Structure formats: structure tokens, C-alpha cells
């Protein structure tokens, strides 16, 4: 058993000053004010130094870490993310993989997890294969542009079905209904997202009863429908903003390139703090930073100068969100832990309470990670 003392404990909607958290390798045993919690003698004491203690972060959407693909280096990327406070991660497999590559990536990640080399793996985020080919980076490698064929995707569903949590779709793709039906049959509790899409709100809403409840990297890789000259149309972004049941994923980089700071504040005002999920969406790309954008050190570019995902980890995304919107440390733990856990149905994580998993991080007032505790052990 261990105890964290001298802590500002971040709860779901408030903070306990001068708090104590008792925990072992299985769970949180007790949490409360110092005067209310009896600390057993002889246990290890961790002094938080009056900093903030919150739940481990959960990144439901990232392809990479430290500019390395997760599916190629699962052990390295797992440890790298853990050091940044990410105690739960959903590796995203993208539509630039062909069928054989999808199957191998799935197999390699599951194998690493079973061998104890990827302990913070909590499931897959399938960003494809059936997305609108007009959107997203690396789209010249998309081999899934042709008609949706059951023979092409059945083996992928079978391979991933016991581990996948989220599956992205473009509702406007012809034949997508059959694909959704087959995924849903194999994985009844699957969460669908609208991604890389120029669907109408009606096309998006059609899939809400099937489990569509996330807008993938909201306001990025989404189309705009223009009905008449000089008249603004409505599309995916408006559908995500309008529907209370849909969470909005946000990539929050330092300069506000993925999502303009004004848009971040607007989305927060519309969706409310309970429907925002911060993601890193890190991608592997080594293109140079375009001239005039030298500050963009947490964004990746391809060699044409186009954005190619981020170079973020989720702790940095939280810090950027604080600067761009004025949100609090408490809010960031909601955006990067509680909301993602709730959206995809993860149990015993996402917030601090008795009997939840003992995955905790200590951060300062600007969300710099000071210490990470995973399964009750200091990382």
C-alpha cells in the first residue's frame, strides 16, 4: 500500500485541497482530506508537494508516439506514453494500411499486450478502412476507395472484434450500412464515429441509433456543403455540435492550427465540458515545418507542407487547451480522462474514487507531469 499526501486531489467536478489518496496495486482504497484519512504506519509516502493529483490520462486516438508507429514499436511507444501520464491508450489504425497490413498490425499489438509489453493498451480505434477518400493525410496510400465488399472486411472484423472499442465511418459512403450492420453484429457494444466525411447532418444522425457518438478530430477532415453562392451550408461539424449525444474530439496544438483557439472556445460553449474529448492523434511524418510556422513544434507535416497529424502527447494537449480556452486543471482531467472513459465504456478509470484502478498522475498548475503511478507502481 502507498499514500499520496499534501495533494490537491482532482475529483470529477471539484478539488480536495490538502488531500490524501491511499492505494495498492489493484485499486484506490481511500481518498479524502488529510484529517479524514488514516494512513497506516510503515507504508510508502509520496509527497505531492501541493500539486494536483488526478486520474491517469486516456488517449483514445493516436497512431504514434515520439514519431514512431505504435503498431511497429508497441513496447517503446507504450512506455513513452506512460511517462507522459497516459495510462490508457487506443492505438489508431488508419486507412493507409491495406488488408494484410491491418491484420498484421492488429496481431502485433495484441501479441505485445499479451506478453506484458503494452500494459496501457485498452483497445483499438479503427480509423478506417471505409472513410471518404477526399479527406485526411496520406490519402494517396488509401487502397479502400472502391466499393465496400464484405469479402474484404470480414477477416479484419474477426481479428479485432475482442479488442476494438471505436470504429470510424463516413456515413455518405455507398454501402456503409451493410458494413455497420456486420460490425455491430460482431461487436454489439461498439462505438462508431463520424470521420473524414462530408455527410449531411441527416446522414450522420441516421447512425446515432447504431452507436455513433463521437465526432473524430472535430472540424478537421470534414467537408462543407454549399447550397447557394454566399450561403453557408451545414455538414458534419454542425451535426456534431447540434447533437447532444455526440462527443467532439479535439486536437489542441500550441498554435491552434488543427482547431483555431476561437473555435475551441466556441465548441466548448456549444458542447459543454461533458462532451469534449482531447486526443493527440500523433502521426508519423518527418516533413519540414513550413516557413512562417516555426512555432508549430507539436504538429507534423508531410513534404508538401500539409498537416500530417500531430506531434502531441495528451499532457501537452491539456496544457494547450488551458492556454487557448482558460479552462482549469480540473476541466482538463475531464476532457482527457473522464469523458473518453465514459464515451467508450471503460470501467473503473477516468476519475478518482474508491475501488477505481490505481492509475494516477501528479501535475503542476500548467499540466507538466511530475509523477505517474500505473497499477499502483511509480513509473
Q: Can you describe this structure?
A:
The protein has 379 residues and is α/β, with parallel strands linked by helices. It contains nine helices and 20 strands. The protein has helices at 74-83, 99-114, 150-160, 176-186, 201-205, 236-242, 261-271, 314-325, 329-344; strands at 2-10, 15-23, 28-33, 44-47, 52-55, 57-62, 64-65, 68-69, 86-94, 124-127, 164-169, 191-194, 212-215, 247-251, 276-279, 299-301, 307-310, 360-363, 369-374, 377-378. The strands form four sheets. Strands 1, 2, 3, 4, 5, 18, 19 and 20 form an eight-stranded mixed β-sheet that branches. Strands 6-9-10-11-12-13-14-15 form an eight-stranded parallel β-sheet. Helix 7 (261-271) links the parallel strand 14 (247-251) and strand 15 (276-279). The longest helix has 16 residues, at 99-114. The chain is globular and about 65 Å long. The mean pLDDT is 96.
Give a brief description:
The chain has 379 residues and is of the alpha/beta class. Helix content is 26%, strand content 26%.
Categorize the overall geometry: globular
* Total DSSP helices: 9
Helix content: 25-40%
Radius of gyration equals 21 Å
First-residue to last-residue Cα separation: 16 Å
Main beta-sheet annotation: 8 strands, mixed
- Assembly type of the shown chains? single chain
Strand content is 25-35%
> What structural class is derived from the secondary structure elements?
alpha/beta
Low-confidence spans: pLDDT under 50, at least 5 residues? none
Task: Count the beta strands.
Answer: 20
Which whole number gives the mean pLDDT?
A: 96
Order of helices and strands, N to C?
EEEEEEEEHEHEHEHEHEHEHEEEHHEEE
Amino acid at each position: 500500500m502507498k499514500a499520496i499526501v499534501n495533494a490537491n486531489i482532482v475529483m470529477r467536478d471539484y478539488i480536495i485541497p490538502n488531500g490524501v489518496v491511499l492505494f495498492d496495486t489493484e485499486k484506490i482504497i481511500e481518498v479524502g482530506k488529510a484529517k479524514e484519512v488514516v494512513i497506516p504506519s510503515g507504508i510508502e509516502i509520496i509527497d505531492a508537494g501541493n500539486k494536483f493529483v488526478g486520474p491517469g490520462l486516456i488517449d483514445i486516438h493516436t497512431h504514434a508516439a515520439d514519431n514512431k508507429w505504435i503498431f511497429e514499436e508497441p513496447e517503446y511507444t507504450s512506455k513513452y506514453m506512460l511517462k507522459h501520464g497516459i495510462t490508457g491508450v487506443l492505438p489508431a489504425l488508419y486507412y493507409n494500411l491495406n488488408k494484410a497490413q491491418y491484420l498484421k498490425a492488429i496481431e502485433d499489438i495484441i501479441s505485445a499486450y499479451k506478453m506484458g509489453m503494452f500494459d496501457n493498451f485498452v483497445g483499438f480505434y479503427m480509423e478506417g478502412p471505409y472513410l471518404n477518400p477526399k479527406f485526411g493525410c496520406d490519402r494517396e496510400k488509401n487502397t479502400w476507395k472502391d466499393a465496400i465488399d464484405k469479402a474484404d472486411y470480414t477477416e479484419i472484423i474477426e481479428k479485432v472484434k475482442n479488442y476494438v472499442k471505436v470504429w470510424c465511418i463516413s456515413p455518405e459512403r455507398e454501402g456503409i450500412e451493410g458494413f455497420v450492420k456486420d460490425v455491430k453484429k460482431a461487436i454489439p457494444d461498439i462505438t462508431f464515429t463520424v470521420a473524414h466525411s462530408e455527410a449531411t447532418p441527416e446522414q450522420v444522425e441516421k447512425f446515432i441509433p447504431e452507436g455513433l457518438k463521437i465526432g473524430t478530430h472535430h472540424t478537421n477532415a470534414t467537408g462543407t456543403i454549399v447550397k447557394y453562392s454566399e450561403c453557408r451550408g451545414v455538414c458534419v461539424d454542425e451535426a456534431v455540435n447540434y447533437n447532444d449525444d455526440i462527443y467532439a474530439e479535439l486536437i489542441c496544438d500550441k498554435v491552434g492550427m488543427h482547431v483555431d483557439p476561437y473555435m475551441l472556445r466556441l465548441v466548448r460553449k456549444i458542447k459543454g465540458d461533458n462532451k469534449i474529448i482531447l486526443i493527440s492523434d500523433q502521426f508519423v511524418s518527418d516533413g519540414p515545418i513550413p516557413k512562417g510556422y516555426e512555432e508549430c513544434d507539436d504538429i507534423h507535416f508531410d513534404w508538401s507542407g500539409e498537416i500530417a497529424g500531430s506531434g502531441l502527447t495528451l499532457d501537452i494537449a491539456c496544457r494547450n487547451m488551458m492556454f487557448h480556452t482558460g479552462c482549469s486543471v480540473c476541466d482538463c482531467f475531464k476532457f482527457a480522462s473522464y469523458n473518453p472513459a465514459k464515451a467508450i465504456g471503460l470501467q473503473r478509470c477516468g476519475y478518482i474514487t474508491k475501488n477505481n484502478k490505481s492509475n494516477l498522475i501528479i501535475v503542476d498548475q500548467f499540466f507538466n507531469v511530475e509523477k505517474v503511478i500505473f497499477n499502483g507502481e511509480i513509473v
